[in-house]
Specification:
Number of domains: 1
CATH topology: Nucleotidyltransferase, domain 5
CATH class: Alpha Beta
Largest sheet: 6 strands, mixed
CATH superfamily: Ribonuclease H-like superfamily/Ribonuclease H
Number of helices: 8
Radius of gyration: 17 Å
Distance between the termini: 45 Å
Helix content: 40-55%
Strand order of the largest sheet: 2-5-4-3-6-7
Structural class: alpha/beta
Shape: globular
Length: 217
């Protein structure tokens, strides 16, 4: 397998502070779809804050937005993610969409989640993590060394951290196309689309800390 070179993937890459600038917003608004990921201080919504938001367009241009401690507004990012003309592609959208809504009040829509798509299309495996999915569909092995690292000091993020963050969005748009083809072939595309449409409901339940609402017990 080809291993993704972290530093090399800082090409076609920029860093913005607190929000997208106007020129970058205009660039992404011209895309049919954008890939998105977030980096946080942990996985507990409401306790672990949002630190970084990464975006990538179909041309492979990545922007990392450094989020300041206590920041509660990002109007350009909000305008982009709420645009009904642009599909927002995530891997495990439920987590990222919840973080974006909790932090900035963003109502992200429409959504495509590669993790949901993988679970519905790749029923021959139980491995649906991003690294596994990228490796199978693109032949590239991601370096996840920086996954568990301190994202809370955005002014001092290392090149390895930034390149890791870029890698997490670079392959999502291409994988969306491959997974859609698989879902359509297996007659599961409509089911997947209904799952994507339902994601905001699950996000609201997560933010309000409701668990097992659909369970019998």
């Amino acid at each position: 397998m080809v291993e993704a070179n972290l530093e090399a993937n800082l090409e076609n890459f920029q860093v913005c502070d607190r929000d997208l600038d106007e020129a970058t917003l205009a660039r992404y608004q011209g895309a049919e779809a954008i890939a998105i990921d977030t980096e946080t201080m942990g996985l507990v919504l409401g306790r672990d804050r949002l630190c970084l938001v990464q975006l990538c367009d179909p041309d492979g241009y990545v922007t990392a937005i450094r989020i300041a401690l206590g920041q509660r507004e990002a109007p350009n990012l909000k305008a982009l993610l709420e645009s009904p003309q642009i599909t927002k592609i995530f891997h495990y959208a439920r987590f990222d969409v919840a973080q974006l809504k909790y932090t900035f009040g963003i109502e992200t829509n429409p959504i495509f989640c590669t993790k949901i798509a993988s679970k519905l299309a790749r029923t021959y495996t139980g491995s649906h993590g991003l690294k596994t999915l990228v490796q199978e569909l693109t032949g590239i092995e991601l370096d996840k060394t920086s996954q568990s690292s301190d994202w809370g000091n955005p002014d001092n993020l290392s090149p390895a951290q930034l390149a890791y963050a870029a890698n997490d969005v670079r392959y999502l748009i291409g994988m969306r196309s491959q997974l859609t083809t698989m879902l359509q072939r297996e007659g599961r595309w409509e089911l997947a689309d209904r799952c994507f449409t339902a994601l905001p409901l699950f996000v609201d339940l997560d933010i309000m800390q409701f668990k097992d609402v659909f369970e019998h017990r």
